[in-house]
Specification:
It is a single chain. The chain is an alpha+beta fold. The protein folds into three domains: 50 residues, no CATH class; 61 residues, Helix Hairpins, CATH 1.10.287; 164 residues, Histidine kinase-like ATPase, C-terminal domain (Heat Shock Protein 90). Helix content is 50%, strand content 16%. The chain has six helices and nine strands; from the N terminus they run E-E-H-H-E-H-E-E-H-E-E-H-H-E-E. The strands form three sheets. It has a five-stranded mixed sheet. The protein has a two-stranded antiparallel ribbon with strand order 1-2. Helix 2 packs across helix 6. The chain binds adenosine-5'-triphosphate and magnesium ion.
Length: 307
């Protein structure tokens, strides 16, 4: 194969003996023929690359769409089937009437399924509003002490079901931050819910908050659960992305919790960081500037020393 390149004096040289251009005119025409051919090859190569990229993109979009439809229809159908089934039983088609205890139990199942269904629909609406920039926040000074203790109480009520230990360490006298209290609470609860869901019995989930360097407030939701690899983290952060996307997976969910939590945190001026290791657990860290420094630039490296 012949190789061509410009030598130090700017002439064209070839990779085989005796092919050095004899004079400037010949070298010039050789050079222009060579650059034309090189140009054509580059254009062709670029077109091939673009075609390949759009094919990969289309395949990816189609796979995401298929996964999305399979996932969302599973998440909608399961509670709907439960609502239909228990409503039919309440309506009473059997010979023997239902006992009051059964009526209350079935009504409870219907209520739980309807609430689950509403939360799936709300999440789909939230992510689409966040993506289209139509999501409105009510930013105000937020007392973190009250807000985080409220989240810890929410987790405390549920931690028994997940049979793991809940640790709460919220420093006293945390500075106020500028945020939307309801939506910040929503973020922390989504993260606590993930931490409890993906931590097996006997594991631990922690909610900690402290002041970091330069007046930053560090909120950390940690667990000793299944953890994720770097690649799994990026899947988990995409809308509808689930590390285990089989329909017979152990955990229910639409895969919207993390993308919503991340976008909501960032829209409130915070930083959202995930540190995780497979089999070792996960830390999700939220960084907010104290209200007095809310206008200062933030860096992502100040969260060190949480664990
Ligand atoms: N703390 C965690 N430990 C291990 N894996 C996690 C953790 N948090 C999230 N994941 C992984 O990331 C995926 C996406 O999480 P995300 O919260 O977005 O969705 P979900 O919990 O599956 O559903 P939902 O929409 O109900 O929150 C999860 O399915 C899980 O595989
Ligand atoms: Mg979740």
């Amino acid at each position: 194969m012949s190789r061509a390149s410009l030598n130090r004096s700017g002439n064209l040289s070839r990779g085989y003996a005796g092919a050095i251009a004899p004079h400037a005119g010949a070298a010039g025409s050789l050079l222009s023929r060579y650059s034309l051919r090189l140009g054509n090859t580059l254009v062709r190569h670029r077109a091939e690359l673009a075609e390949r990229a759009s094919r990969v993109e289309a395949e990816f979009a189609s796979r995401v769409k298929t996964e999305f439809i399979a996932n969302i229809s599973h998440e909608l159908r399961t509670p709907l089937n439960s609502i239909l089934g228990f409503s039919k039983m309440l309506k009473g088609t059997g010979a023997s009437p239902l006992e009051p205890r059964q009526i209350a139990e079935y009504a409870g199942f219907i209520l739980g399924s309807a609430e689950g269904l509403l939360s799936v629909v709300n999440d789909v609406i939230t992510i689409s509003k966040l993506q289209s920039g139509k999501f409105e926040l009510a930013m105000d000074l937020v007392d973190l002490d009250e807000l985080l203790h409220c989240c810890a109480a929410w987790a405390g009520d549920r931690v028994e079901n997940s049979r793991c230990r809940l640790i709460t360490r919220i420093d006293e006298s945390l500075p106020a931050i500028l945020a939307d209290a309801e939506h910040l609470k929503d973020v922390v609860i989504r993260l606590l819910s993930n931490a409890m869901r993906f931590t097996p019995a006997q594991g631990a989930v922690a909610l900690t908050a402290k002041c970091g360097p330069r007046g930053k407030v560090i909120i950390c939701i940690s667990d000793t659960g299944t953890g994720m690899s770097a690649q799994e983290i990026s899947v988990a952060l995409t809308e509808f992305g689930q590390v285990d996307n089989r329909l017979d997976r152990r955990h229910e969910g639409t895969g919207l919790g993390l993308p919503i939590a991340k976008t909501l945190t960032e829209r409130q001026g915070g930083e959202f960081l995930i540190r995780s290791e497979e089999g070792r657990g996960t830390d999700v860290i939220l960084l907010f500037a104290a209200a007095a420094q809310a206008g200062e630039p933030r860096t992502a490296s100040e969260h060190a020393g949480i664990r």
